[in-house]
Amino acid sequence: MTKTSGYQNRPVQVGTGKSVSRAGDTAKGSVESAAAAGPVKITEQARQLAALKQAVQALPIVDEARVVAIRLAIEQGQYEVSPERIAQKLLQIESDLAEPEK
User: What pTM was estimated for this model as a whole?
Assistant: First the structure.
């Protein structure tokens, strides 16, 4: 339980005599001034990136076929764990994290 006695719920006065604009008003002004500057040209690379982004977003988060295949292999006792492969991947991750960004 939180103790809240002794606190008053009253409005706070901010910047008397100053006008305050909403965030949406500022963004709206930026869009209007950009539109007045002229037409926007989108490069082919930007179009390709947008298409790639849409394609990636359309992919399922989980590869259901792979999950089913691994589940079946486990159930049949055919799934093998490779400690060497796991160790190699861990070392690779460690190496990647240790490298400075290029």
Answer: 0.35
The widest CA-to-CA distance across the chain, in whole angstroms, is 76
Distance CA 34, CA 38 (A): 7
What are the two backbone dihedrals, phi and then psi, of residue 29, each rounded to the nearest 5 degrees?
-65, -40
Rounded-to-integer distance, Cα 29 and Cα 100, Å: 41
Residue 97, both tokens:
């994290």
- Token digits for 82? 């490779």
- The DSSP secondary-structure symbol of 63 reads -
Q: Domain segments of the chain: what residues? A: 62-102
Q: Which residue has the higher pLDDT, 89 or 60?
A: 89
CA-CA-CA-CA torsion sign (92, 96, 99, 102): positive
Q: Are 51 and 60 in contact (CB under 8 A)?
A: no
Phi, psi of 23, rounded to the nearest 5 degrees: -60, -40
